[in-house]
Amino acid sequence: MASSSESVCDDQGDYQWPWCQMGHFGINFIQTDGSKAYVEGDLSRAYIKDYELLRASKRPKDQKLAEEKIQEDLDEMSLKEVESEANGDTVDDKILDEKDMAYEVLPKWTSDKRKGRKKKMKGRYNYRSFNEYWDVAYFYLTQMTWLNDFGDQMNEENKEKLRKKCEEMKPVYPIEQHENLLENPDYHHVTKSMIEPKQGATYEEIYAEHCELIKKKSEVDYHAHQTKSVTRRCKDMISRVKRLGYAPGFEESQLPSFYDLKTEQKHDKPLIKEIRYTIDDAFSKKFCGADSRDEKVEDSSASTSDSTSPSDSQPEMPSPVNPSEIRFNFDPETEKYLIASDAEKLYANDPEISKYYYQRYRLFSRLDEGIIMDREGWFSVTPEAIAEHIADRVVRHNVSVVVDAFTGVGGNAIQFALRGAHVIAIDMDPVRLKCARENARVYGVADYIDFICADFFDVSATWAADKKLAPKVDAVFLSPPWGGPSYLKAKEFDLATGCCPNGVDIFDVSLKISPNIAYFLPRNTKVSQLTELAIKAKSRMEIEQSSLNSKIKTITVYYGKLAYREKIPACDT
Ligand code: MGP
Ligand code: SAH
Fold it and tell me: Where do Low complexity bias regions lie (predicted)?
């Protein structure tokens, strides 16, 4: 089901931060309408570090503690470096080791021939068809069973000769049921019991019939074995993907249990289809109905107002205003509640936000130069180093116009612009969009960003309805609300019900603008749902974990030409 390519960290030198392909997968789907689809993609990880920004953000009373913690981390890192250097390893070797570990946990294609890694595992070879198996096994199967049935009629010398020849011709990877035919009672008296009543048959006729019978029986056993092995590999895949820190999106218990071999032997139809269907069914469950978006918008406003409502202890913040009355120029007098460097006082009794305040420079390294943010901005802005990396991934040769569909306070839009893209920044919240514009000014890139205060769904519909209004867009970046900081409470994040608006609808709408999509999501988002989006996009995909100082913080899923495929030339800057 999965394999890894030959080269190691191919693009590593190409991105600003070390990047590693953790594994490669290919999944066959049989959808509920019976149609087939195939998705190929990669699991990857970006190793981003921002210790300096984190260290600078700590609260004074925590300073000593923070220094010690960071020092510990740094010591541990340098210790590891010293240890691995002593072993002759380089930093690349360390990533290589991690990749190798990932490689080891992911199931491999049988054709994958990594030097020195191929182990002979009995019964583990995956033949492409029964015919392929029969080609390598027919001599052993027909002759050994002939010996089982008619050996008593041969002299000892011939018997021994045939037995030896059979052992020589035994396939390297026989299926489990064929491991030891001499001892397997199922393969004794197969022909004898059926043919003996036919009086007067010649040995040639009996032999021909014997071969037919053994072929049929072997085919049934072969399919039973394949089904069992697909189930086992799927279970392996699920648990190994979990071990890499992803949320597969379905449980091992959802896979069918091993079937009753006795009953199955009555069918001579390949069973592999059935098991695939069951697995794919788990992938291809229909998402909520078409109206779910409207519900979500309502939910979203509910949860937004919830999550943004100032806590009792907070200073009074202005009540919502009519968008038509919004001024897009920031007024430091009337809107001082937005000034990020003053947030310590503003959110003193709001632990949810003070947590972010004490990481403030990792959000915006230039925070003290006039950055502004509202409450939702604090917990949803993309940490600067991650946003920088995403921009590095997205803004390459052929990407010059990026739509940031959920701009928020501008964490990503600013980095796309700094990287040289022209950005169309959309957000339906006028206050947050104002923050984004002011923040872009702080970073000197406001002139490279068009700000549109609107619902992304309306913008997309308008562009789709009138092509003359639609700009030429190279890529769409999506970072919608995840329903507030509680998104990690559930074991797995559901794209459809967790995002507001519905994360699947968002993707559908984005596809109308560009096939090149980067989707910024919780680290516990169901892989199965992300894969389903790739079917819609008819594209490859890459699920990249952002490891920030060794903690997997978020994921970014790339579709279309943004997904890892081969070395992409870096931007000429
Ligand atoms: P977090 O909730 O701070 O997780 O979010 P963390 O750091 O694992 O929490 P901890 O309690 O384990 O320390 C991590 C990052 O995800 C934030 O810095 C944001 O960049 C992003 N993020 C979080 N939320 C709730 C949202 C959201 O609703 N929308 C978007 N686009 N990003 C979010
Ligand atoms: N990446 C941003 C954070 C985005 S938070 C940053 O780094 O700052 C998600 C944003 O989506 C919020 O600002 C919210 O107002 C906006 N949003 C929610 N629904 C929207 C919609 N339908 N259309 C446009 N923006 C929307």
Answer: 300-313
Which helix (DSSP H) or strand (DSSP E) does residue 38 occupy? Answer: strand 36-48
Residue 262 lies in a domain: no
Q: pLDDT-derived band of residue 191, with 50, 70 and 90 as boundaries?
A: confident
Asked if residues 424 and 402 have their Cβ atoms less than 8 Å apart, the reply is: yes
**Residue range 520-529, pLDDT digits in tens:** 999 999 999 9
Tell me whether residue 463 is in a domain: yes
Mapping DSSP to helix (H, G, I), strand (E, B) and coil, where does residue 34 land?
coil
Residue 500 CA, ligand 1 centroid: distance in Å:
15
The candidate with the shortest Cα–Cα distance to 415, out of 432, 392, 441, is 392
Q: Is residue 152 part of a domain?
A: no
3-class secondary-structure state, position 347: coil
Residue 349 counted as domain residue? yes
Residue with CA at minimum distance from ligand 1 atom 31: 479
Residue 463, domain extent: 340-559
Tell me the pLDDT band of 209, cut-offs 50, 70 and 90.
confident
Ligand 1 center from residue 379 Cα (angstroms):
6
Cα separation, 408 vs 397, whole angstroms? 26
Choose the most confident range, by mean pLDDT, from 27-36, 87-96, 156-165, 356-365: 356-365
For the chain, the domain total comes to: 1
The finding on whether 364 has its CB within 6 A of some atom of ligand 2 is no
Q: What is the CATH number of the domain that holds 521?
A: 3.40.50.150
Ligand with minimal distance to 486 CA: 1
pLDDT tens for each residue of 60-113? 665 555 666 666 655 555 444 434 444 444 445 555 555 555 444 444 433 333
